[in-house]
Amino acid sequence: MRVPLSWLREYVDIDLPVSELAELLTNAGLEVESIDLIGLPGAELEWDRERIVLAQVLKVEQHPDADRLVLATVDYGAAEPKVAVTGAPNLLPYVGRGDLSGENLYAPYALEGATLYDGHKDGRVKAKLKGRPLRGIYNDSMLCSEKELGISDEHEGIILVRGDGLRSAGEQRSCLLYTSPSPRDRTRSRMPSSA
Question: pTM here?
Answer without folding.
Answer: 0.75
